[in-house]
């Protein structure tokens, strides 16, 4: 018996497509077929069908945009968005905003129904990076 070589299935790389390319794919699909457009631009046929359904919203958005409005993960805790305005308000008054004060305010703002929320260090790091905050060290003043 001859040894048979077993090949691994090719893993397809994920790509980001901007709105202008999506519209080109849709135009080709409307002239020819979904399958033909998918083959020509090397995308899945299902993706071509979805882009055809989104054609009106794709024409309205900017050509460099890669995601339509409303895409992405939704905010889980709307109460924590008040925390952003609280931090901005304190910074405008040139008051120091410490990490522990942010955690205390988050616990105060969290709804009573969520007892498992602890405002941990990990949560704080992700919250600060998500909203573009950074630690600002107080510098010394030279005489």
Automatic annotation (TrEMBL):
Q: Where is the HTH CENPB-type domain?
A: 67-137
Where exactly are the transmembrane stretches of this chain?
A: none
Query: What keyword terms does UniProt attach to this protein?
Result: DNA-binding
User: What GO MF terms are annotated?
Assistant: sequence-specific DNA binding
Q: Name one Pfam family in it.
A: HTH_Tnp_Tc5
Q: Which GO terms describe its cellular component?
A: nucleus
InterPro entries xrefs? Brinker_DNA-bd, CenT-Element_Derived, Homeodomain-like_sf, HTH_CenpB_DNA-bd_dom, Trp_repressor/repl_initiator
What protein does this entry describe? HTH CENPB-type domain-containing protein
Gene for this chain: 105313897
């Amino acid at each position: 018996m001859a040894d048979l070589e077993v090949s691994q299935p090719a893993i397809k790389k994920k790509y980001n497509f901007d709105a202008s390319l999506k519209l080109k794919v849709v135009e080709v699909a409307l002239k020819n077929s979904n399958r033909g457009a998918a083959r020509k631009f090397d995308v899945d046929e299902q993706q071509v069908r979805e882009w055809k359904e989104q054609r009106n919203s794709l024409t309205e958005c900017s050509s460099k945009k890669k995601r339509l409005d409303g895409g992405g993960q939704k905010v889980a805790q709307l109460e924590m968005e008040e925390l952003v305005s609280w931090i901005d308000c304190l910074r405008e008054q040139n008051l120091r905003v410490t990490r522990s004060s942010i955690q205390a305010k988050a616990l105060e703002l969290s709804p009573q129904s969520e007892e498992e929320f602890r405002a941990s260090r990990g949560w704080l790091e992700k919250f600060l990076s998500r909203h573009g905050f950074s630690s600002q060290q107080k510098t010394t003043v030279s005489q």
